[in-house]
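Practice problem: predict the structure.
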Amino acid sequence: MSDRELIEAAYADLDRLPDAAEAVERTIARLDRGEVRVAEKIDGEWTVHLWVKEAITLYFRLRGLETMVAGPFEYHDKIPTKRNLAEAGIRVVPPGTVRYGAFLEPGVVVMPGYVNIGARVGAGTMVDTWATVGSCAQIGRHVHLSGGVGIGGVLEPPGARPVIIEDGAFIGSRCILVEGVVVEEGAVLGANTVVTASTPVIDVTGDEPVEYRGRVPARAVVIPGTRPKTFPAGTYQLPAALIIGRRSEATDEKTSLNDALRTFEVPV
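Answer:
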């Protein structure tokens, strides 16, 4: 049987986990090297590889707690930290942490933040101070995750899409992105924007509002907002995200970003 078949069988019947132990270990090692990934874009659509997420879940069952020491820091956990960072061309600033089973392309910088197992972070991306990249999240190339950004983990159920941030996006301070939302290429999110699967993302730039759920369109410039909803007890303002403009498709992406932040007065 292939590693995939062994993992799928063990996930369906835990009594078969001993037979799949080596397949699970191999799959997590391949995740760590970037040879497989939890989700990828195929023909323009994001596809989730269920069996890879199943392997991560089974890996937790196989591992026992152990004490690990890194300089002055002591950890007690099931999964070690990622190794050989210099060879991979990755910068991790103490006490930033990248867990084994996450893959970071060369040029990634992790300030004192956190990248969890199953996550993938593209080349040139900055994970700023206290930003967290949850399990299985897919972060594109040249993305900026500002201080305190929370990218939620989506490990179970296996078929659930992880949070996805596409290339060139800018995520402002203290933004929260959870429940498998997709932030498309080049989008800009102002500070404190929260997007969940049910958060209305409303384009208010035209004569009539246009609403999205679960995704932020490419190159959209977004800020936090509210909209009213009536309940038996009265009318209250519920959270929403407002698209207030579009980032230009300039050749120089840094110029495009700076222009968008200045033009739309977006807090970051």
